[in-house]
Specification:
The complex is a heterodimer of chains A (294) and B (248). Helices cover 78% and strands 0% of the residues of chain A. Chain A folds into 2 domains: 13-44; 53-257, MetI-like fold (Orthogonal Bundle), CATH 1.10.3720.10. Chain A is flat. Chain A is mainly alpha-helical. Chain A has helices at residues 2-36, 47-56, 58-92, 94-109, 112-123, 127-151, 155-163, 168-179, 181-205, 212-221, 225-253, 281-292. Chain B has 2 domains: 1-73 and 152-248, P-loop containing nucleotide triphosphate hydrolases (Rossmann fold, 3-Layer(aba) Sandwich); 82-147. Chain B has helices at 41-48, 88-92, 94-98, 104-116, 132-145, 162-179, 190-196, 230-244; strands at residues 3-12, 15-25, 30-34, 56-61, 64-65, 74-76, 150-154, 182-186, 199-204, 209-215. In chain B, the strands form 2 sheets. Chain B has a 6-stranded mixed sheet, sandwiched between helices. In chain B, strands 2-1-4-5 form a 4-stranded antiparallel sheet, with helices on one face. In chain B, strand 7 (150-154), helix 6 (162-179) and strand 8 (182-186) form a beta-alpha-beta unit. In chain B, helix 4 (104-116) packs across helix 5 (132-145). The longest helix of chain B has 18 residues, at 162-179. The model of chain B has no long low-confidence stretch (mean pLDDT 88). Chains A and B meet through helix 7, helix 8 and helix 12 of A and helix 3, helix 4, helix 5 and helix 6 of B.
Chain lengths: 294, 248
């Protein structure tokens, strides 16, 4: 038992250690290139200068983090929810699917950055255009992946559930809906980092309040490359955090993809009061024989 | 009282898939249907389970008409169709969840059944952690948990290796005897049909129809060794003649 435990902690350690090593290597290459090629700090600041800028501009940047976070998280949730509902509606009716799908594909061919000015004209410089841009970016992968997941549900499974006497709604609840979780989360993981990009894009076209995108533009106008890099570092951290949170929620909601046994909090039934051992010795021996075969 | 099909036929467009079939299955009887692809085996199952409304004819169960109605018989396919996100126990009570919510008592009796049939230690396992034979056993239990008197099993062991399949056949006979179910069983495997059944219905294709009904008087309980002995081998020869034509 303890050996499997230590093997598990060793696995966890390598799972964390290896990415840390590769990140450290990137920092090292960055630092060494600045030193060896003697690059001027106004062209490429060293990691140290970047972190100094991070400290110096902390008041502006931390305010930027909270504003940009608010934009991309809210936009992400709106886009994900809308995408999910659209996918369900489209799977519910073939007519709706035929009507909406071509519009969706076409809309995806329109560059979001080109739509942004129009959004500002319609919605002004407030939160609305930024949320819309983020939501639009998140929306499409969610619709497509969830639709694929719904289409991949085994027709025989639906027939079986029908033969068992399930109504359309109950089959949807117990059979179809849980099947969308895995494709939904692959879309959400992709979208999590795109959402941060979307928020920056939104701030560039409709900037009044000081998010990180605005901080980037201000640092650019001062030719302050160290501050630009400081803002970039924070955007990377936001993107990673967003991805991490989505991945964590996925791990919690889809335990069957990693574990052979359901975690305690998901089992509605504790193996507390099994009333009888096997009455049929023959059945049991058959079971044992079958389990013994590889 | 029993399961009765009278004059049941099925056409898809102009194609007659199933010529009118009359069939009466006694309570507690084990009846197999064998025949080549396209002989209408699965069509009969889809009609009895209520998934398909026959073009003509009717199905009654214990005197009640169930033509075109789902939820009256248990149904199981070659694919185990277990839900990967449900534990063994939650898969067994799927039928109850589809009719509302599984009660504490339904969960308890499902757990008892799993324990009785050798899966008591796997209640909270996910299906992917189980072997093929164990998965099929969970699928059989899911069908049993519906508590219908009639079970339709459509090639349930077709995807298993021959050793596991033999063990599963013996196990199924135990279950059938203990639970006193009526079983209608589709298979491609003549040996499987003979070893399990009281009667074997031989069907032929284009259009699907009943060619002959063969009674299997081999006594019970049955042991694998009887498959090498005389009454069995002559029955098998007869079935082979029916399906593949008389040997030259």
């Amino acid at each position: 038992m303890s050996s499997t435990k230590s093997a598990k902690s060793a696995r966890v350690f390598t799972a964390i250690a290896i990415p840390l090593v590769s990140l450290a290597a990137v920092l090292l290459v960055w630092d060494l290139s600045v030193r060896i090629f003697d690059i001027a700090p106004y062209v490429l600041p060293s990691p140290q200068r970047t972190f100094t800028a991070l400290q110096d501009d902390w008041d502006t940047l931390s305010a930027g983090v909270s504003i940009t976070s608010k934009e991309f998280i809210t936009g992400f949730l709106i886009g994900a929810l809308a995408g999910f509902v659209f996918a369900l509606a489209m799977s519910w009716s073939r007519l709706v699917q035929r009507l909406i799908y071509p519009v969706l594909i076409t809309s995806q061919a329109v560059p979001i950055i080109a739509v942004a000015p129009a959004l500002v004209i319609w919605m002004g410089f407030g939160l609305a255009p930024k949320l819309t841009i983020v939501a639009l970016i998140v929306f499409f992968p969610v619709v497509v992946n969830v639709l694929d997941g719904l289409a991949a549900v085994d027709k025989d499974l639906v027939a079986l559930a029908t033969a068992m006497g399930g109504t359309r709604w109950r089959i949807f609840r117990s059979v179809t809906l849980p099947a969308t979780l895995t494709p939904l989360f692959s879309a959400l993981k992709m979208s999590a980092t795109f959402a941060v990009t979307g928020a920056v894009l939104g701030e560039w076209t409709a900037s009044t309040s000081g998010g990180l995108g605005v901080a980037l533009l201000e640092a650019q106008s001062r030719l302050d490359v160290a501050s630009v890099f400081a803002a970039i570092v924070l955007l990377v951290v936001l993107g990673l955090a967003a991805f991490g949170v989505v991945a964590l929620v996925e791990v919690i909601l889809t335990p069957w993809r990693r574990s052979p046994v359901a975690p305690g909090w998901r089992t509605h039934f504790r193996n507390r009061s099994l009333s009888t051992p096997s009455e049929s010795a023959q059945s049991r021996s058959v079971a044992a024989a079958e389990m013994a075969t590889p | 009282m029993s399961l009765i099909l009278s004059g049941v036929s099925q056409s898809f467009g102009n194609v007659e898939a199933l010529a009118p079939v009359d069939l009466e299955v006694e309570p507690g009887e084990f009846v197999s249907i064998v025949g080549p692809s396209g002989c209408g085996k699965s069509t009969i199952f889809n009609i009895v389970s209520g998934l398909l409304k026959p073009t003509s004819g009717s199905v009654t169960l214990d005197g009640n008409p169930i033509t075109g109605q789902t939820g009256h018989v248990g149904y199981m396919l070659q694919k185990d169709l277990l839900l990967p996100w449900r534990t063994v126990l939650d898969n067994i009570v799927l039928g109850a969840d589809l009719r509302g919510r599984a009660t504490r008592q339904e969960r308890q009796s499902a757990a008892d059944m799993a324990a009785r049939y050798g899966l008591g230690d796997y209640l909270n396992h996910y299906p992917h952690a189980l072997s093929g034979g164990m998965r099929q056993r969970v699928a059989v239990m899911r069908t049993l948990a519906l508590d219908h008197s009639v079970m339709l099993l459509d090639e349930p062991f077709g995807a298993l290796d021959s050793h596991t399949r033999l063990l599963m056949q013996q196990w199924l006979l135990d279950v059938w005897r203990e639970q006193r179910k009526t079983i209608l069983f589709v298979t491609h495997d003549i040996d499987e049909a003979l070893f399990l059944s009281d009667r074997v219905i031989v069907m032929s294709p284009r259009p699907g129809r009943v060619q002959e009904v063969v009674r299997v008087d081999l006594g019970r309980p049955r042991d694998v060794h009887l498959t090498a002995e005389m009454p069995y081998t002559s029955l098998k020869g007869h079935l082979l003649d029916l399906i593949y034509g008389r040997a030259a």
